[in-house]
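> tool_call: predict_assembly(chains=six)
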Amino acid sequence: MEINWNNKEPIYLQLRDRLVALIMDGVLQEGDALPSVRQISSEQRINPVTVSKAIQMLVDDQLVEKKRGLGMYVVDGAKNKLATEERNKFLTEEWPQIAERIDRLGLELDDLLGKSTD
Amino acid sequence: MEINWNNKEPIYLQLRDRLVALIMDGVLQEGDALPSVRQISSEQRINPVTVSKAIQMLVDDQLVEKKRGLGMYVVDGAKNKLATEERNKFLTEEWPQIAERIDRLGLELDDLLGKSTD
Amino acid sequence: MEINWNNKEPIYLQLRDRLVALIMDGVLQEGDALPSVRQISSEQRINPVTVSKAIQMLVDDQLVEKKRGLGMYVVDGAKNKLATEERNKFLTEEWPQIAERIDRLGLELDDLLGKSTD
Amino acid sequence: MEINWNNKEPIYLQLRDRLVALIMDGVLQEGDALPSVRQISSEQRINPVTVSKAIQMLVDDQLVEKKRGLGMYVVDGAKNKLATEERNKFLTEEWPQIAERIDRLGLELDDLLGKSTD
DNA sequence: GTGGTCTAGACCACT
DNA sequence: GTGGTCTAGACCACA
């Protein structure tokens, strides 16, 4: 879970994506507590405000819920929700641009996928 | 050659990509002069400084060269250079991340081909 | 760190050279933050855009890196990089022309040492 | 006698320096006619106005004179004049900057000159 | 005509 | 607070 400080991708989005990946990969199970803002902040040397911003996005997407006085917890069904929502988002918003780029470069999708699925 | 003003992508990058596409598609042949900064500026309603920034990137990539007092010209071999370099850049820098993403989302070839699988 | 406003050399290049000198002389250590764009801008009475242009050159040369929202930092190894690269560049690109010039003008070592030979 | 179109050095200065070199090297003897503006212009593919500008500089320096209806001729004493004037100009205007640069790079003048005089 | 530089001032996203 | 982008308008050297 490393942050790329040179990247054009904002820190809070990088962090959000990391957390999403942890949930999808089952490292963070449903019902589990997220690491605290303070903990993430000190471990990753990220400003607490930035960490909060990332977690707040998960709350807004109803993937995580706050238990008062206890912390943030992964909600039931979060993994399934992610499986469909992230999928749709990728297919409609990101993939079209990528596909056009692949086309322009004269590359074949089959060959590309072969590399990662073989 | 149209600019998307609502896009968060900076104008000078959009413009650079347009020019690269024109070279790759052969609309701008090697040895041809690029449209002048002022011409692009007035046609597209973009500030000349912004246009210059886009073209300067092409100069830095040695796709275009300045002839003092005359204008900017597509260098010999620009098309080939683009064909190989852009491709390599995509395969080594961008595709690995995308592939990991596709993998995690559990997407298949059919999903990506533009026809939903029902 | 002073700018010569009468010089035909562009301000952003003068500024870049100043910053390079500060790194080579160790005034700016590796890991240190550069003075912020706004700070340089107000102290030296230079437009922020012009200052950015100078610093961006250092980023392109990988002497400096951006930490988003925090500022620009001298990268590890910047000093060594400068010591070798600037030297090579001078020896291969600039010195040959100068040497030819000296030769044609019939100048001797004594002439160049700053004490006229009478 | 080649022109570098990418160079930051203006064409008319490059051309002027070429002509000066031809005189100093004796290719153009005193009393010889310079190639005509038209000839240089077509051979080097330089705009005639630019060629005139270069030659006019030589006239201003009294290295060349116009013979009405005949063309431009190298004046008597041009070679000597160049030997001293170019020399002084170099020593007072250009060399100090170069010397400082050599110093900053930690290079030794002796070593550098050894390369070109051995 | 060409591109290059600079300013003043505005607005943006990010930390 | 940080840097990045853009505009409008000016001025310059060069061909």
